[in-house]
Structure formats: C-alpha cells, structure tokens
Automatic annotation (TrEMBL):
UniProt: ATP binding residues: 26-31, 50, 58-61, 74, 97-98, 119-124
Residue ranges of domain Ubiquitin/SUMO-activating enzyme ubiquitin-like in the record: 453-537
Every Ubiquitin-activating enzyme SCCH domain range: 320-377
Alphabetized PROSITE patterns for the sequence: PROKAR_LIPOPROTEIN, UBIQUITIN_ACTIVAT_2
Family from the record: Belongs to the ubiquitin-activating E1 family.
Segments of this protein annotated with the region Disordered: 201-235, 554-580, 608-636
Protein name as it appears in the record: SUMO-activating enzyme subunit
Pfam families the record matches: ThiF, UAE_UbL, UBA_E1_SCCH
Pathway: Protein modification; protein sumoylation
Species this chain originates from: Cotesia glomerata (Lepidopteran parasitic wasp)
Gene Ontology CC entries for this record: cytoplasm; SUMO activating enzyme complex
InterPro entries in alphabetical order: ThiF/MoeB/HesA (IPR045886), ThiF_NAD_FAD-bd (IPR000594), UAE_UbL_dom (IPR028077), Ub-E1_IAD_1 (IPR042449), Ub_act_enz_dom_a_sf (IPR023318), Uba2 (IPR030661), UBA_E1_SCCH (IPR019572), Ubiquitin-activating_enz (IPR035985)
Amino acid sequence: MAASIKGVFNDELQNAILNSKILVVGAGGIGCEILKNLVMTGFKDIEIIDLDTIDVSNLNRQFLFQKQHVGKSKSAVARETALTFNPDAKITAYHDSITSSDYGLNFFKKFSLVMGALDNRAARNHVNRMCLAADIPLIESGTAGYNGQVELIKKGLSQCYECFPKPPQKTFPGCTIRNTPSEPIHCIVWSKHLFNQLFGEEDPDQDVSPDTADPEAAGDKAGEEALNSNANEKGNVERVSTRLWAHSNGYDPEKLFAKLFHDDIKYLLSMDNLWKKRTPPTPLDWKNLPDEVAGCSKDTDERLKDQQRWSIAKCALIFGKALENLKNKLEELRKKSPNDHLVWDKDDQDAMDFVAACANIRAYIFGIAQKSRFDIKSMAGNIIPAIATTNAIIAGVVILHAFRILTGNLKACKSVYLRPRPNHRNQFLVPEREVNPPNPKCYVCAPTPTAVLALDTTKMTIAELNDSVLKERLNMIAPDVMIDGLGKIIISSEEGETEENNDKILEELGVKNGSILKVDDFQQNYSLTVNIVHRDKPAVRGDVPDFLVVADEQDLKPKEEEEPKKDNQVPSTSNGQVTDIIDDDLLEIIPDDDDELMEVVDEEELPAKKRKTVSPGREVPLIKKRKTDRQVSDDGDDCCVIEDTNEVTCIPQKNSLKRVHS
Ligand SMILES: [Zn+2]
C-alpha cells in the first residue's frame, strides 16, 4: 500500500496516514470508492457505517459489491472486499443508522476526521452537527449526475452544511416516489418510471408499484397481507411484470387506469402506518372522474393545452390517447427489432402527454397541486441518474482533502466542484478560491443559533411541530421545547412527559405570533432559539409549504418577484449550489437553465445582464490574488487553481428559491 512504501509520501504525511483513525459515513456509491482509496493508500484504522443492504441496482456503480452480496449489509460487504485489497487494514463495519443514539459525541471524538458519503440531507445535517459539536473535521462529498463536490466542514473555520438554505431536495427515496408522494415532482418522476416500465428500457430501480419494503410501513400487517394475497395476481409487485401485464391486457386504458390509480392506491391505503401522519390518497374510478378541479381548466383549447392545468377527466382522455399511440409506436418498432423499446423524450408529444396526464392524476389522488404540461415538461426533462465515474473522481478528491487535513493544512481544503464539461480553462475540477468562512447567522453553527419559524399557530398541532418542523425540517433527533419567558415545556424528549400535548394546537398552549421557543437536542448537542411568526396555512399542498424556517425574518418575503440579483442569497459554495450533493440510488432533478448557465458564465459575447445573474454581489470573501501555499505536492495535479471564482458561483434557482425553506 502506498503509505507503506518509503518515498511515496513525505514523512509527515506518511506518519499521519498510518496513525489516523477515519470514519466513513455511508457505503454507497461514494463510500465504496472512498473505502477502496483509503485501504489502497495505506490507512490502517477505518470505521464505516451504513444502514442499507445491497440491491441489484447498486451493482453498476458500487464496485465492492457483487451479485452474490445482494441483500447483505453494505458496510459489512464493503469491509470484506476492501480487506482483500489490504489485509493489514483494520476496518470496523456498522450496519446501522448514524443518527442512532449509539453514535454520540464520544463516538465522533474518537476520529481524526470524518468522511461523509451520504445520500440524504437528514443524515448529512446530523453528521454536520455531530462533527461541529465534537469539533472533528468533516469532509462532505456528493455527486449529482456529472456534477460533484467536496467540501471541508470545520467548526469556526468553514461554512457548515447548514450555513445557507438549500434549494428543495432534488433526490427522492424510492418509497417516496412509490408510496408517499408529497410534491408534484414526486408524481412526475413516478410517471416517467411508469413510461419506462410500459414502453422503455425496464429498470428495477424504476418500479412504480407500491413498495412494501418501505421502512415506514414496517410491521404493517395489513400491508403485508395485502401484498401476499393480492399482489401477484394483480401484478402489483412482480418487478418485471408491469409491461407483460399491460401487454396481456392490450394496453386497455380503462384496465391500466384501474390498476394504477385505483387498485394500487387501495393497496397503499391498506398500509396503515403510512397514513398515520399524512392525508391518505383517494382512489379514482374511471367511470366517475371529476371534471372540475379548482384552478384547472377543462376546456380543450389546443392552443392553450400546454399552459392550462387539466381536469382529471381530461387527463384520463389524454392518458388513453397517448397510451394507444405509444403502444402502436412500440409495436411498429418491434416489427423491425423484437427487443427494442421506446426512449422517453420530452419533445415527443405522446411521451410527454402520457407523463403529464399520469403525473396530474397521481397528484390529484394524493392531494398535491397539479401542474401544466409546460411545467411538467421542464421538470421531467431534467431527471438524471447517478454516474459511477463521478463518484470515483469525487472520492479521489476526498482523499486529497484528507491528506491536507491530516498534515494540518486545513486552509488548503477549498471546496472543489466537478463540472459536467470543462470551463474555458479546460478544467473539469474547479476549486473555490479559499475556504468559505461560516455564516454568522447560521442557525446551526453560529455562536447562539436562532431561526425564524413562520407557520399557522391556529392550525399546527404540537405533534406536527415536533415531527414535521423539528425532526423532519430541522433534523433534530430528540428535541425538547420550552416557551421562553413562560418556562413552560411543551415538548419533552422523555417518554410520557408531554404526550398529552400532541393533539393540541400551538395557540392553545400559548405559542403565537412573537413567541420565542427554546429548543434543545441533547443528542446533537444543539440548542436553537426559534422566533415564531404567524402566517395562514395554504389551502393546497405542493405549491406553498405549510411552514417556513429561515435565518432572518427578511427572508420570509416572497422572492419570486424580486430582482434577479436577489439570487445572491444563494451562496457561492455548495451550500446553495444547484447540485445539492447527492449520491446513489436516488434521482435528481436539475433546473432547466443549469447547463446553459454553467456554460455561458465566461462567454464574452454574453449580454452583461445575463452574466449578472450568475455573479451576484453575494456575501463572499474578498478575492485574494495570492495563491495559497501548498504543502501537498500533488495538489496542483488534481485540482486546478482558478483565478476567477465566478465560474463556480451560484447557479440561480429562479424557480425554486421561493421554496428554499420548505
Ligand atoms: Zn453553519
């Protein structure tokens, strides 16, 4: 291994590698690559944790796993495989959630540094807080299609993962798509998967039937029974059967509709656990479809077809027509080549009609705001899969960052972005100019964290405050909440202390506009002051969130109407970047204008106005002309130094900024 060979590294780095203790959080796409790099480099003492088991669909990019490992613990198999590369390494594997109370402050304090290779924001936020609390450097990494990034998070030195609000999450676990959609995009992703199941390249990752492995439905007897009794004969769960089933039914629109939008929904309803805290979906009857939907036009004016939102009856008509056309296209294609399939294309009228109609029908069923065909087209055109090579490159950069940290050169750990195509300097890997300092207003890493919470104090219950706001949105694990001034504890993390409050409305307990809540999470070593602002609850889900959490009350003002330069609230780093760090089995959505903007930033011929939108007068550190001294010799080889940070500054989230805090 590299570190065992004299002369590969300088003595200082060699010793540091041999004597460090590393925690890798996540054994998925990036985690596997990191672990391989660590053992090959000669790191001796490694611990790795992952909650997941190996799925067949992981095998195209998580190369420590093979077919015979499907169903086994990711961390355990990753350890086994990595040990074959370097039997001298000591690797401890945990098949567990990093958010478990077993991994508290003392656990984190054992390590020289932590490498985050996670696939979801909740776990990232938690690891961020634990590393801040333990004061251990964290190398946070992620990929999104061909984009990737690596950043250092170190208390007091750098921005933390939560320093700036993020665009809405663009990755969705399979069970959200299949069982519990709550946003229009979830329904759009599902519909694209359905297209592929029926007409496109079949992919086990893209199952559209109810997911009985949903951890939330665990122990749900009704769900299991429904699965065992009905599923197979109705084709609900056999992964490859959707197309065969549709084919054997002649792609009959009524039968397909009944299965997708009635039977499968009924089946989901039988999984009781899913609907304890959610509004349950409503199955639809083909023969009795609503023709009037609030805000939706039933007119069939073709000129406005793209801009209008359709009634469900109209969706069903379009669904039937698109289904027939697509079936005919597939049959034509297969006359020439029997195993061929259609490829989804947003510019193909039938393919787009099919997805728009299905997405809106599903949205209606789940009480989610419907969208026009035009909106759906822009969202559906930007769903891209995980890429193995991106993970490998990013994992390499993670190790280079580790070298700098271990030799005390933290200031050289500038955030690095991997771009889909080279910039005008022919660079794919682009570092920031320097480590970005913490946001003094951050509600996580500021000395006295404070946040503003806007919600309807006359509608929200204590249970919702606890589950949706504190746990889901603010990623606390076990919060305690006290009303400041009154000294009244309204939520306790101790069982049996405040359960009687759960169904009470905030106002009943004295929480109203102007109230201040003191929230503590002992597990995360995190205290937060929450200022309450009352605002009326929106009528429809999906368009406007039920509540907002912001660092500053000013941020509550609608952003949509503001000047583009307001986009500068998106910081220059990953923390506001469009490519929210992602990895793995999840899908991601990138905004329509992403590529265009990334490409044109430096184009001289570009009108100044447009460039302005990507180089806002944001709060960035003053640009230093001097290059940072480098102690790691290979630094320059892998991370090109750039002179102009504008290239990696924010990519405006024109359409999504308004939902940044949702
Ligand atoms: Zn912060």
